[in-house]
Amino acid sequence: MSYDSSVLGRGTPRQRGLVLLGIVVILGLLAWAAHWLIFGRHFQTTDDAYVAGDVVQITSEQPGTVQLLSADDTQSVKRGQLLITLDPSSVDIALQSAEADLARTVRQVRAQFAKADGLRADIAQREVAVRQAESDLKRRRSLASDGAVSGEELAHARDTVTAMEASLSSAKEQLNATLASIDGTTISTNPDVLAAAARVRDAALGVRRTRIVSPVDGLVARRTVQLGQHVAAGTPLMAVVPLGGVWVDANFKEGQLEDVRIGQPVTLKADIYGGDVTYHGRVVGVSAGSGNAFALLPPQNASGNWIKIVQRLPVRIELDPAEVKAHPLRVGMSITASVDVADTSGPLVSEQVRSVPLPERPRDDRDAGIEQAIERIVAANSGLNATSASAQVP
User: Fold this and answer.
1) Which residue range is the domain that position 147 belongs to?
2) How many contiguous H segments (helices) and E segments (strands) does the chain have?
């Protein structure tokens, strides 16, 4: 582009100003076009993005009356920290009842073992009686041929043998019925005793559930429970939001998603910090559908008049935990996200399974305590020491 520099000198000041303005505009457009061709076209940006995170609902696993509230909205809590205490009176009674039932069951099983021993002795006695009756019958048969024994006496001897055999058979059946519930077991491993012990553990679990603790580290939100309120099992009481694991859902227009791939880097700015803080993340997934496709009342575009509306699809962006820890974010905050789409070698669909299991509950000292209580009850009501109580049935 060439021009005569004398034009600027000969024109009026207004004309010279317009020419200079035109040159500046043209140079600015050229600079913007060069920047877009080299850098800008490799970025897709949206300010329709918001912080999202897991919201862990705190619910009661059993009914009860709220006796103590140890946490409130906006309060930071640690995993295992006490949140709510329910009145333990009813579950304490249930535990005592279960322990008494265990003791009664042990005594009943112990009686079954004793009954089996008694039946074995009774069978041995009846076997002797049967042999004696058979011997008497044999002797009378030999005498009957000589007429020394009447036919009536011989018939009575036969009836005696039959009665003794029936009595022996009845005793054996009683022993079989008794052994059906105890054979191959010990007092401590008998199914009835194990079932009673399980009821004790369940009652002890109910006692522990009167103390509701936080399953994760986070911030308390949406507390709805009140002191003295009677809550049913499954009633939402409050929520704990683990802010250390938040992510961003950026809603891009469908025309912006052509080059978006899993793993692409993202720069983000939060409105709360303005331009002073920059977060770095990466794309971890693109939603399976637009927002209105999953709405409660999705649009029916096949009926009536139709107006095309550009749709947006949520793109999930994983944040750097260290940056989030240094500058905390809250769920729902506004974010501006810019995705670098220069590298399109990544997959279109994420194959990574995001699994966030509930942290395993640490073993409580009360777990060992209830097991010791069960062993103590079994030993105390079996009439034997702990070693003898576990001896096999002969």
Assistant:
1) 90-207
2) 8, 14
